[in-house]
Amino acid sequence: MGKLTVGALRVVLVVVLVGTVLVQVLMVWTLISGRDPEDGSLPLTALRVITILGMVSVQVAAVCVGRLVTMVRRGTVFSHAAFRYVDGVIGAIVAAALVWFAVTIVNAPGQRDDPGVTVIMGGIGLAILGVALIVLVLRMLLAQAVARDVEAAQMQAELDEVI
């Protein structure tokens, strides 16, 4: 990875982290203060709590991706240490899907006249789970690469002994 790519990705990750923390602080402040600027047509307290939890999943994914980028930059990504960060990304994506399903459930009673919105929201939740499956497949590819790297190191050690 080039320095420009790494730098740009780090800037994006920092902006995402700062933005999500600000949203969380505003949501918590709104919940604590009791001053609701909305008319209350939806269960806004539930949606605010769900939003706060959703932001946590985004933050976990951002931190894990940041650690993986650091490992790529150092050349240590093909190691067993990378698996915990990839697992963190997978867990964050699954958590985001569950949060999205919670939003769908909270929103569903208001969509009785037009249930298509709820179906579309459910489809989006399934698509988010599909992303988690894609990352799981990439994790399996990483496992194969790590295994090949370990095997190559063992063969190199044996070759060094012979020479």
What would you note in describing this structure?
This protein has about 160 residues and is an all-alpha fold. It has four helices and no strands. Helix 1 (about 5-35) runs antiparallel to helix 2 and helix 3 runs antiparallel to helix 4 (about 115-160). It is elongated, with a radius of gyration of 21 Å. The chain starts with a helix and ends with a helix.
Keywords, please?
single chain, 163 residues, mainly alpha, 4 helices, elongated
Could you provide a short overview of the structure?
This protein has 163 residues and is mainly alpha-helical. It has helices at residues 3-33, 44-74, 81-107, 116-162.
Task: Describe the secondary structure blueprint for this structure.
Layout: H1 3-33, H2 44-74, H3 81-107, H4 116-162
Helix pairs in contact: 1-2, 2-3, 3-4
The level of helicity is: over 70%
Largest sheet: none
**Strand residue content:** under 5%
Q: Looking at the structure, what is the overall shape? A: elongated
Which structural class matches the secondary elements? mainly alpha
Query: How far from one another are the termini?
Result: 35 Å
Q: What sequence of helices (H) and strands (E) makes up the elements?
A: HHHH
Give the low-pLDDT segments: none
The chain-level mean pLDDT equals 89
Number of strands: 0
Number of helices: 4
Using only C-alpha atoms, the radius of gyration works out to 21 Å
